[in-house]
Amino acid sequence: MDQISRAKSSKYEASHAANINHLDNYIELLYSDKLEDKIHSARSLLYLLNEAESIEVMLNHESLIGILARTLRDEYKKSTDLSLYLAGIFYVISNFSTLHAALSQNQIGDTSIKIIEYHIQKYDYMKTELAKVKHDMEKEQKKFEILEKKQNKLLFLCFSILLNIAEDLQIERKIKKRKIISYLIMMLAKDNIALLDVVLRFLKKLSIFAEGKNEMHEQEHIISKLQRFVPCPHHQSICELVLKLILNLSFDSNIRQQLDTLGFIPRLVSLLKHAPFRGLTLKILYQLSMDDKSKSTFTYTECLPMLFLMISQHPEAKVGKELVAVAINLCMNSRNAEIISDGKQLDILIKRALQNQDDLIMKLIRNISGACKSSLIQETLYKYTPKFISAAVSIPEMDFVVEVLGVLVNIDSEELWSKALPNTQLLEFIQKNIVPGYAEDDIILECIMLISTIVCSDKCAKLIGGTTIIKQLNSLLEEKQEDDEMVMQIMFSFYKLLLSKSTRENILHETKVVNYLMELLQDQNPRIKKMADEILALVQEIDEEWKEEIKLKRFQIHNQEWLEQVANNVSEEWEEESEDDSGQVQWADLSDLDGRVWGDMD
């Protein structure tokens, strides 16, 4: 048996000779002047602490924790081995939440941080000294590696103790003030899996709060330190922790921008091929897909083809939210919408959405139809328009119907609507659903927007003019004056209807639309004021009767604004002139009155 094997064997025998009946002897050895006695005691106590029959006796000992804490505090610079055994003991104890108060009383958190600081400095010193060595390089390198191995174990234990006692948020705040984030991020350069595991779990915990997240990003540049871990599919636990940490950080727009800049998007996309990481990866990609600048980065990856395959081949009727949500965001970009619709892909998506009444896939189709007007996409949408209309008028599921109507809103074809309106129940559906109080606001809004789309020719306008839609829009404008988006869309519908002679007269002379528009010239919302002004300008061009009245209204508004401004200016000037240092009106004294008024009356 060689020397190393004999040493291991003797250590094993010594540890297994530990006996709970000798507990007081082990405690006494901690007071010895010999370092070897203290190491033997700590090793024996650690062994006993891992035995079920001994642990209760030890934890109930009135002075054991205090003696161990004092020994660690006094000796951690003298022996790494002793520090390892003692830190191991406190690591076991820290797993019991009920004992955290005792650890705090004995300053174990403070000592753990001091050990971390000391060994970081020692490691840097040893590394610097190793670089200076010119002889016996191999021997010195081996010594350095042995030290590093022990240090990694000790750092793992100290960080684990701190993580366990940080269950208490007050203790977590105290720990964070001691540069713990900086020390944790230093550890990301290590290759020890156990150490990386606890470091990443700790960082994930600290990243939940904005203060910790900001320090990681602004002071420690954590994103650049995480590059080497993405992707790392061969270390599943580490990869999952890294992804969870990135997910926490990705709620910050500046961090999302840095993730894009540092090339994380293609790296993350590659992880979609690995099932264990797919859920977390999709959540991060969803965060990144919210930013317009990042959307174009996805265009040059495999993401969109992969998303299409995962959506189209999803085993369940309704596709997972995270999966479709990424595609929905990305397809607000025209090039991305074109890629995911390539060939027969849009056909497949539409069929799946209609078959399963999947509102999220229909929302994806809606975004595609709004972002890209390529001939392939438009032709596919035209082909399915009758089915879209049929689904809208017959399916009771509101969320699905809202998205179907949204798709119809984006189909711009005079020829298509001229054929579709007389042969479907779409106008009846619109009339039924824009009755105030009858339908949900989301349905009402989509119907109003659809009116703006379908009134694309005189033929379509005549069909609308033959219904009650114009009067209903007039009622809605009065009813929904507090809903700015609704008001904007109703106004735009009236603008489109005013462009057609078939509906113009009805609006101008049988409704109060123009009166409402003149009132809206003084609305608080500048977008509403601008649109009202533009529509009234159109009315002035097409109707002489309204022309002068609108002109008078504009003058009155301008005059009122001018008078208010003059009044405000006069008021401000009076206030400035009537105030002195004390803020009170001052009277001339009697001598002034004598000289100015009475002097010439003799």
TrEMBL record:
Q: Name one GO biological process term.
A: microtubule-based movement
Bilayer-crossing residues are 82-103
Q: Name one Pfam family in it.
A: KAP
Species of provenance: Stentor coeruleus
- This protein's name: Kinesin-associated protein 3
Q: Which GO terms describe its molecular function?
A: kinesin binding
Keywords of this entry? Membrane, Transmembrane, Transmembrane helix
Query: Span of the secretion signal?
Result: none
Q: Which GO terms describe its cellular component?
A: axoneme; ciliary transition zone; kinesin II complex
